[in-house]
From TrEMBL:
The keyword Flavoprotein applies. It comes from the Eukaryota. Keywords: Chromophore, FAD, Flavoprotein. PANTHER family: CRYPTOCHROME, CRYPTOCHROME DASH. It comes from Rhodotorula paludigena. This is Cryptochrome DASH. Belongs to the DNA photolyase class-1 family. Residues 551-660 are annotated as: Disordered. GO terms for molecular function: damaged DNA binding; deoxyribodipyrimidine photo-lyase activity; FAD binding. InterPro entries: Cry_DASH, Crypto/Photolyase_FAD-like_sf, Crypto/Photolyase_N_sf, Cryptochr/Photolyase_FAD-bd, Cryptochrome/DNA_photolyase_1, DNA_photolyase_N, Rossmann-like_a/b/a_fold. PROSITE patterns: PHR_CRY_ALPHA_BETA.
Length: 660
């Protein structure tokens, strides 16, 4: 008898709990469906597959657009593969199976549909999770077309954000551009997110091919038939990444020092949810507000982002755990702040849908929201680029700030320790991310896309959005936000424990100088830091840092202000050159200290190139900066007014942090 099949095609939804694809495939209306075939395709556009024996790529290597880093580095490759095999185990425990294939998702799927047809089966539909980024949307369109050619409908389920798009209090295209109004409208909803779907109690059988036959054709059928497992696949995926400067560490396994020491998969994700929200009396979430700015250990924040990014847990499952916690312990600030952060995730997702391909352009969302300002920042000379002729190696003492940033050798320990953590573990705290991004884009003025691509390559939890925001081309109402890494280091790593963990070569430095080792007398530096292991001068030094070389006041460790105002005002104070200037005569200091004037646009040393740029957009820059400032002030005032009205001012919401 012909079998009636639904094919569930999984991308970033590697879970059984609260997965609309499984839920809907097993609903009562689907009684005529006899079998469900879950499929995962390692897609060569996102992850390099050339390490698979005999694999022939159809397109180019899986590298980032601009900088040509591997798109999926070793940490995410490992985490993803673990997640795929964990899902297969869970399906097997329920009598089902996960078909694992390699290639182009649309092609592999269409081939499988054809093979099932050839077996005399009927494929009723293919179910897929709707994604938010334009590249994935384009693949979805190709898949729809390929399936149309074989007469099979594609059914899409929107389940990535916490808030279902049809529950939004505004049309997705009309979402507020700035976070606070977005959040406030969402917070007025009667319920934050729908209830999660349970795992179907009885999984429909997997449509196995006729007796003895290989699983359906397509690359990887042989691997499956050979019963090769996780280790073999992982080895193949890691093989091409071995030679690169930036990805070696991840190939060697999980780093014991990592703040994210977890294996990939729904099993680990649910254990983490259980531990963070339910275990202990009270569980760790009851200290979230106090600890979330931490840097060391796994407990300071939820550590759910990698699981969320690959869909190993749904945000609705997290909210439901949070609600259980609140029922037991009462509604508190801690729970509020976890929700608040999850709304940031939704905000970036919906912004990605609204702004589409502007997610990847130099001018970012601002090209739409503030074209004049974006125009200024897209002029040649505004951003510095990375001269890729210089090979990326670990042992260079590069003149290029971009290279030093990637190496974790800028000479600014708080930045470098965070970069070391990223490179050696695939994770970085939120505090660290804000600082290294600000350092790259605001201090060193390097094209933000380099940072975004470097993160894409290294992070286990990579998602778009934050880089635009931090570098001032997204929707930050205070685009001038700039971090002072010396002050931040003093505040959040006052004893240098974090720096010593990731930069052991600085272990002997006294606490008083660990954030600014260049202030030591050269002989002291030479005595305390093993030769050649760390730069004796920072790649750039801002005048605003100097006030913090000698630490004053209490440390911020344990203080819940994640978004405090930073002293150093930002680049949107545009000088006559059309470039940012530092306040109170710091301009010349800045260019003199940084010693890096590849774009020749800084301060007193402005070159002919600078003058040309100045002439080109002097008028517009002054005007747009004024408008930008007015806009920022307006939004800040508005948000503060709202905070006062809601009584949230003084409860963690201040003029400084209300916008983030
Ligand atoms: C420059 C920069 C790059 C970043 N890149 C990423 C990224 O690639 N992927 C990613 O998931 N997060 C990113 N973030 C946001 C944030 O740093 C991480 O989500 C967070 O550090 C993950 O740790 P956690 O799960 O313990 O977070 P928690 O503090 O426990 O927060 C709970 C959840 O809220 C969400 N969340 C929190 N902050 C943000 C935010 N700013 N934007 C979006 N979602 C947020 C995450 O899903 C997170 O798991 C970035 C932030 C910056 C400043």
């Amino acid at each position: 008898m012909a079998r009636n099949i639904i094919l569930t095609l999984h991308r970033n939804d590697l879970r059984l709990t609260d997965n609309a694809l499984f839920h809907c495939a097993h609903e009562r209306e689907q009684d005529d469906v006899t079998h469900v075939l879950p499929l995962f395709v390692f897609d060569e556009r996102f992850i390099e597959l050339s390490g698979l024996p005999g694999y022939e790529r159809e397109g180019p290597e899986a590298r980032t657009r601009l900088c040509k880093f591997w798109r999926t580095g070793a940490f995410r490759a490992r985490f993803l593969t673990e997640g795929v095999f964990d899902m297969r185990n869970s399906l097997r425990q329920r009598g089902s199976e996960l078909l694992i294939r390699y290639g182009l998702m649309e092609k592999v799927t269409a081939d499988i549909v054809k093979a099932m047809r050839a077996n005399g089966d009927k494929v009723k539909a293919v179910y897929l999770q709707e994604e938010f980024y334009s590249e994935e949307k384009a693949i979805e369109r190709k898949l729809r077309k390929a399936l149309k050619e074989v007469g099979v409908p594609l059914v899409i389920y929107d389940q990535v954000p916490l808030i279902h798009p049809s529950d939004l209090p505004f049309a997705p295209a009309a979402m507020p551009d700035v976070f606070t109004p977005f959040r406030k409208r969402i917070e007025n909803l009667p319920h934050l997110g729908r209830a999660p779907h349970p795992i179907p109690p009885n999984f429909k059988p997997f449509p196995r091919p006729p007796d003895g036959a290989d699983l359906y054709p397509g690359y990887g059928a042989q691997i499956e038939a050979d019963h090769r497992g996780l280790d073999f696949v992982l080895q193949c995926l890691l093989r091409p990444l071995q030679d690169t400067f930036q990805l070696r560490a991840g190939s060697e396994g999980r780093n014991q020092r990592s703040a994210f020491p977890y294996a990939g998969g729904e099993t680990a994700a649910l254990q983490r949810v259980e531990w963070y929200f339910k275990q202990g009396g009270p569980p760790p979430v009851s200290r979230y507000k106090e600890t979330r700015n931490g840097l060391l250990g796994h407990a300071y924040s939820t550590k759910l982002s990698p699981f969320l990014c690959l869909g190993m847990v749904s945000p609705r499952t997290i909210i439901s755990a949070l609600e259980e916690y609140e029922e037991k312990y009462g509604s508190q600030q801690n729970a509020y702040w976890v929700r608040f952060e999850l709304l940031w995730r939704d905000y970036f997702l919906f912004a990605a849908r609204k702004f589409g391909s502007k997610l990847f352009t130099l001018g970012g969302f601002e090209e739409v929201t503030d074209p004049k300002q974006a125009h200024v920042k897209m002029q040649p000379g505004w951003w510095k680029s990375w001269n890729q002729d210089e090979p990326l190696k670990d042992d260079v003492n590069s003149e290029q700030a971009a290279v030093r940033w990637m190496q974790g050798k800028t000479g600014v320990p708080f930045v470098d320790a965070n970069m070391a953590e990223l490179r050696e573990s695939g994770f970085m705290s939120n505090r660290g991310r804000q600082n290294v991004a600000s350092f790259l884009t605001k201090d060193c003025q390097i094209d933000w896309r380099l940072g975004a691509e470097f993160f894409e390559s290294h992070l286990i939890d990579y998602e778009f959005g934050n880089w635009q925001y931090v570098s001032g081309v997204g929707n930050d109402a205070r685009a001038s936000r700039q971090f002072n890494p010396v002050k931040q280091g003093n505040d959040y790593d006052p004893h240098g424990d974090y720096i010593r963990t990731w930069l052991p070569q600085l272990s002997s430095l006294p606490n008083s100088r660990i954030q600014c080792p260049w202030t030591l007398p050269p002989t002291e530096f030479a005595r305390l830091v093993p030769e050649g292991t760390y730069p004796c001068k920072p790649v750039i030094e801002q005048p605003g840092w100097k006030a913090h070389y000698v630490r004053k006041g209490p440390s911020k460790q344990g203080v819940p202000n994640r978004n405090e105002r930073v002293r150093n005002p930002g680049r949107l104070i545009v000088g006559k050159s059309g470039r940012s200037i530092e306040p109170s005569g710091s301009d010349s200091d800045h260019s003199a200290e940084s010693g890096s004037t590849d774009d020749g646009l800084q301060g007193a040393g402005a070159t002919a190139a600078a003058k040309a740029v100045q002439k080109q957009f002097n008028h517009v820059s002054v005007q747009t900066v004024r408008e930008g400032r007015q806009r920022e002030t307006r939004v800040a005032g508005q948000a503060l007014g709202e905070a006062k009205k809601n009584g949230t001012q003084g409860k963690g919401v201040t003029k400084e942090n209300v916008l983030y």
